Amino acid sequence: MVGGGLLRLLLDWIVPSTCAGCGAERMEVGGSGACRCCWGSIRELDPAAACPGCALPAAGGRCRDCGDTPSPISRAAAFGEYDGTLKTLISAYKFHGFDILSAPFAERLARLARSSGLEQGAPAVVGVPSTRSRNRQRGFDPGVLLARETARRLGLQTLPALRRLRSSPPQSRLSRSDRMANVAGVFEGTASAAGRPVLLVDDIVTTGATAFAAARALHRAGTSRVHLLVLARTLVPVGPTAPECA
Ligand SMILES: [Zn+2]
Ligand SMILES: [Zn+2]
């Protein structure tokens, strides 16, 4: 009993003891960071229907925005809609200490990369870096960790091909064109991915402004092609919702 109690204490210290989505106890959560109900409640998106420029569901063609303004991204796919449980889990990952979610997120991204064919041609994997000050606060860089974990599962190389030069002011209240202007010049590409195709990994895409700025920086540094693999894609503007699993 004493040994079991000590093991429990040790596990509580190493692994978050509740589901990051609904707060259910560990018995259901295991090492996946969230319970089965929460993972099962995520609305996955069909990669065959994704706009190749931004991953927005567009019946297999380009969405209107990418039709109007050519995207710097050749192909794109998103795992799920940025809403409900997935939104809660990403927030837990980035802001509430659930870096354990990098593993189950990466498993799903690797599966998506294979099913959508985005991993073909052995591209190097590149994460979208956050600012140094934010990374210092949280102890890790969520975009870069997600890219590294995904690359490991795909057997691909990760490259530090993007540098963030500055933070960008909050985007949530800005229009699409203002967001594009807001992130212009935020990233700089390095020579590490010059002449190579790249699989860019990001956690959230809303208008695509940040991913486009990252892709343009990679192209300026000589990257031959940029594919985008994203965890969550905003479909319509929505407010926060609570999962109903607990
Ligand atoms: Zn849950
Ligand atoms: Zn598009």
Quick recap:
It is built from ten helices and six strands, in the order H-H-H-H-E-H-H-E-H-H-E-H-E-E-H-E.
- Run of helices and strands: HHHHEHHEHHEHEEHE
Structurally, how many domains make up the residues?
1
What's the count of strands?
A: 6
Mind describing the biggest β-sheet?
4 strands, parallel
Q: Any idea of the CATH topology?
A: Rossmann fold
Unreliable residue runs? 237-243
How are the SSEs placed, and which strands pair?
Blueprint: H1 2-14, H2 26-29, H3 36-40, H4 64-68, E1 75-81, H5 84-95, H6 102-116, E2 124-127, H7 132-138, H8 142-154, E3 162-164, H9 176-183, E4 187-189, E5 197-205, H10 209-220, E6 225-233
Parallel strand pairs: 1-6, 2-5, 5-6
Antiparallel strand pairs: 3-4
Helix pairs in contact: 6-8, 9-10
Residues 19, 21-22, 24, 34-35, 37-38, 245 line the site of one zinc ion.
Description:
This protein has 246 residues and is an alpha/beta fold. It has 10 helices and 6 strands; from the N terminus they run ααααβααβααβαββαβ. Helix 6 packs across helix 8 and helix 9 packs across helix 10. The two termini are 28 Å apart. One zinc ion (ZN) binds next to helix 4.
Which features would summarize this protein structure in a list?
two-stranded antiparallel sheet, binds zinc ion, 10 helices, globular, about 250 residues, alpha/beta
